[in-house]
């Protein structure tokens, strides 16, 4: 899932990317990457016991990002 926030008046060109991936031992990860469009971003991986928990976390982050202007 890719999100972007672009506001030329404030020189804001940001991206936020989230991906859910299975682990080797039945767990699930939520991989997030964010930064300035056109530049390499920072990456964070959070681990969850179930796919449903990872999807819930992704939805919570999506709602927070939507409030900050990401589309």
Automatic annotation (TrEMBL):
<dbReference type="InterPro" id="IPR008893">
    <property type="entry name" value="WGR_domain"/>
</dbReference>
<dbReference type="Pfam" id="PF05406">
    <property type="entry name" value="WGR"/>
</dbReference>
<protein>
    <submittedName>
        <fullName>Polymerase</fullName>
    </submittedName>
</protein>
<dbReference type="InterPro" id="IPR049809">
    <property type="entry name" value="YehF/YfeS-like_WGR"/>
</dbReference>
<dbReference type="InterPro" id="IPR036930">
    <property type="entry name" value="WGR_dom_sf"/>
</dbReference>
<feature type="domain" description="WGR">
    <location>
        <begin position="1"/>
        <end position="71"/>
    </location>
</feature>
């Amino acid at each position: 899932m890719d999100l972007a926030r672009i506001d030329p008046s404030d020189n804001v060109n940001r991206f936020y990317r989230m991906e859910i991936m299975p682990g080797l031992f039945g767990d699930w990860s939520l991989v997030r990457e964010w930064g300035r469009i056109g530049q390499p971003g920072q990456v964070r991986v959070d681990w969850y016991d179930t796919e449903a928990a990872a999807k819930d976390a992704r939805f919570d982050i999506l709602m927070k990002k939507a409030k900050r202007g990401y589309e």
